[in-house]
## 1
Amino acid sequence: MSTAVIVMGAAGRMGSTLTRLVAEQNDMNLAGAVERKEAIGALGGLNCPVRADVGALLADTPGAVIVDFTSPEASLATARAAREVGAAHVIGTTGFSAAQKEELETLAAGTPVFWSPNMSVGVNVLLKVLPMLTRLLGESYDLEMVELHHNKKKDAPSGTALRLAECLAEARNWRLEDTARCCREGLIGARPEKEIGIQTVRGGDVVGVHTAYFMGPGERIEVTHQAHSRENFAGGALRAARWLAGQKPGKLYNMQDMLI
Ligand code: NAD
């Protein structure tokens, strides 16, 4: 059975990747694309209805799954429209405030909603695997994290590096706030055992590289995730769309729910 997909923000970086990827899938069809009125002119050559409002598309395509990488306000408005008709809604948008996140959770009680600030399947699998490695190796292994990103990235360390380091800390029953060491300089002395170094490298057009180091007596394990392009996020969102189409409402689903 083919899953009908409506792409929000179709002229955006993620939206345009998604419309292309959906068209390439054997088990999906592009049921519609939504863009702001001002940006709709940038959309050309799409083989589907293009609208500035998701409401009419939802009425025309019952059962369609919405895939949405836009802005927190736009995604919330879409979640309200999805709730009206019970449509499944996959959200990759980041930057929700606590109150906005709470509203999403409330809406998720009435319609299937999935939200992940990192749609990479690989990163989410690492979140499952790294705690196991940490526990199996034991306390004598020092834990470090290094991340590389392009030279335009505004924040450091990346949110993904922080989340990965947090899952290492949790596996040791530590709090990342107490143990993260984001920079070393000068006469720092011996490395404390209860520490997780998080180092940042910036340059060029690197999409994103995260390496977790487990450094023990006489050996070292490195686990690296490399994002090559936005397709890694878009592919994860489409996998979530397929999965969400078969879920009932009740909670705000995330990647960890899907990857059980
Ligand atoms: P972008 O600015 O290139 O695209 C956003 C698009 O949404 C724009 O074309 C904009 O016109 C459109 N838009 C805004 N309001 C709209 C509305 N009301 N209706 C329809 N369209 C609307 O941004 P981007 O790089 O594609 O990222 C979008 C969001 O996804 C950001 O929050 C970003 O942080 C997030 N993101 C998440 C992941 C992830 O893995 N979860 C990966 C990449 C980006």
Note: The pocket of nicotinamide-adenine-dinucleotide is lined by residues 8-9, 11-15, 34-36, 39, 69-71, 74, 92-95, 116-119, 233 (CB under 6 Å).
## 2
Amino acid sequence: MSLKEQINISALPKHIAIIMDGNGRWAKNQGMMRAFGHENGTKSVKTVIETSVKLGVKYLTLYAFSTENWNRPKLEVNALMRLLVKSLKSELPLFHKEKVKLNVIGDIESLPSKAKKELNLALSETANYKDMVLTLALSYGSREELVKTFQEIADKVKNNLISPHLITEQVIKEHLYTKSMPDVDLLIRTSGEQRISNFLLWQIAYAELYFSPVLWPDFTAEHLYEAILNYQQRERRFGKTSEQIT
Ligand code: IPE
Ligand code: IPE
Ligand code: MG
């Protein structure tokens, strides 16, 4: 049986999030510039989107650029922003074909105006699609998201719109960039690094973590199937005992 056939379609992770890492090392391995790795990484992005929507995954969230990534050399940041514009243009037909709704999380205002323009176009053109929500984390940092959340809630307290003892987990959730999405079920990080790098700290509280040694430009549909199969072999107990679950 192929890997794909072994997947239990009725027990798919509803929300998969991916830290797409290893583009730079992939390029370096071939004696090329880092930007060459990012360019080749876009092929894996396309593969993962197509594969996820075909399987029936409802939410796919991709970490494309972190708040910390602004500290990279200007040349690399510019190359990434150009690639973002280019990819949004070239992937829009795929979003239409597969009925993928685009969503973005992060400090979008900090992006170059060209990127914002392409994003807004893709967001509005795909707003009514329902097959899968594809969220791009752009200039995203989980701590920045939490700071913004606490500021907004504090403002509401100050204006007597909410009283402090009514601030619940649900209220906090409703102020996050991810308010309309379920928590992450499966978090994948490629390239062998085993860290979270400021990604969705609140939302991964009970996610299953899967670390792949594969560098992002080498990540294929088969690798995604492997990750999902691995996820399906785990018992998610959410604090309960195994006996309570089965
Ligand atoms: C991930 O690949 C892409 C982004 C962070 C934008 P890297 O660029 O981090 O690649 P490595 O980790 O240096 O190999
Ligand atoms: C995390 O990768 C950010 C993205 C994949 C967009 P990094 O390569 O920036 O993470 P660190 O700095 O090595 O932890
Ligand atoms: Mg990296």
Note: The domain at 9-141+184-233 is CATH 3.40.1180.10 (Undecaprenyl pyrophosphate synthetase).
